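Subject: mismatched residue count in predicted assembly?

I count 597 residues in my input, but I want to confirm that the predicted structure covers every chain. Input:
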Amino acid sequence: MIILIAFSVGNGSKDVFLKEGFFNFLTGTHWNSVEGRESYGALPYIIGTLISSSLAISIGVPISFGIAIFLSEMAPSKVSTPLSYIVELLAAVPSIIYGLWALFVFRFWVRDLIEQPLHNAFGGTIQFFAKTPFGLDIFTAGIVLAIMIIPIVSSISREVLKSVPNSQREAAYSLGATRWETVKIAVFPYARSGLLGAAILGLGRAIGETILVTMIIGNTMGIAAIPNSLFSQSQSLASLIANEFNEASSNLQLSALIGLGAVLLILTMGINIGARLLVSRMVKISGGIRE
Amino acid sequence: MSGSARNYNNKQRIHGIMIKQAFKRKMVDKIVSVLAILCVLAAIIPLGSILLEVIKNGASAISLDLLTQPPGAIGSTISGGIAPAIQGTLIVIGLASLIGVPVGILAGIYLSEFASDKELFPSAVRLFNDVLTGLPSVVIGIVGYITIVLTIGSFSVLAGAFSLSIIMIPIVVRITEETLKIVPNSIREAGHSLGIPKWKITLFIVLKSAKSGVLTGIILSISRIAGETAPLIMTILGTSLFFTSFVKPIDALPLRIWRLASQPYESAHSQGWGAALILIVIVVVLSMLLRLLAQRKGFHIKAVHV
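Triage response: the counts match. Full output below for your records.
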């Protein structure tokens, strides 16, 4: 199956790689589908993808870890059981619904409560906040992606923290450590690679997410899609594919879009294999100790 | 004399430092606890708002017309409904399950019952299966487009079902394998001691005792594909007509929500919320079912986060 996927994506994107050259395709910034002046470069969209998803994990992952610590270490089971049930339920909410909500509700919150004050305070001095906030931009996309990955990342890290044997905690408590110190010196080191794996899985999710990003990232093209501030409109690999796939006018454009898919495929495959290796190492360690 | 006094002073100082430190450590502990609770709140507020908005806006949009009529012309006063989308979602999910469930279960059986851990092939299958789970759905949509749409020559139900089944298979395989591994060996041995052939033991004894776990996997994968949008854009395209043929385009709920949300009309938006509510109800009912099944057998769902 995976061979089929690799083959069909590779075959479909052959055209554009032949025309543009592999590295030109990766580093080009023009995206022009007008017949005769066609040129395709994926750099802005790769950057857009990376920025929006790194925003997502830098917001989402700490919060998820906080939730996981709360659920597995602090909360009494009366609180943690229903809460983890809710979290898992939310992991099942389709991303299109996050997108709908972000488009009609959340972007106004972000614009009025976060972006406008930031813009007013620092807009004159720091380039980062210079653009007049609009609500549909890379910052909103990052936040909504963060909200989307929180349920997944926090439920995996909760599982990981739960797999830490209790003897670790008891040892720390017996030395007189407080609860936080226990988590810091006994639980975290033990669960480190598993937590890292959870974070990377979240990153993979954020990079591959399509429809949500398409709805809120603003969909700019070409050189303009390289964001010059936190509040610029941008474009990600997946959202460009979703936007143009049905309107592709020539075979070359189609092939360029499939080329974007190939880039995305390589990116997420690398991330996922890395994450699985980390998590499986963690599981092996804990399994070895349990036996 | 002076020495013991100094000693006493030292002790007191150390004691003071320890008290201060203990205080500091307790404060840090408190602060971290508060931070953790804040994290939970920070996650609950937007998520709660999503559900609230969907229910509030969706409930006012739902009507008999919405559920039974095809969509009206864009921007016209007759807004129509989303019936073809509901029908399409059900058809595509059904077809995808028809492809995905047997393949997934058989592969899971192979991995758990027939493959040995030392061989290369099963572990390669496992690795690829895991990788497949993590692939972005948009890439899978492209595959569906290339393999089916280009071959048949038109956007079609089949292509959509094929793409969704690719998303579905890894989940089913994984959970089937995990569940079958939980089935105690004594059950298999009992079968063998009666001289029953292995395939019969696997199908009628092992699989039967793992039924609820396997069902869990199937429901989980269905609720996952019910909300997929990206692969459908490239495979079933979306239309405003009812189902006519397996090789024609069809509509689906996520796709319809996407299209409605990008129209500049109030009525379209409200229909979008209605469609979102229906979709969420489908997904939530499925995962409730999953919970019930999981609890009944005391089977703990783990390693199912995909």
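Confidence is low (pLDDT under 50) at residues 298-306 of chain B. Marking this ticket as 'not a bug'.
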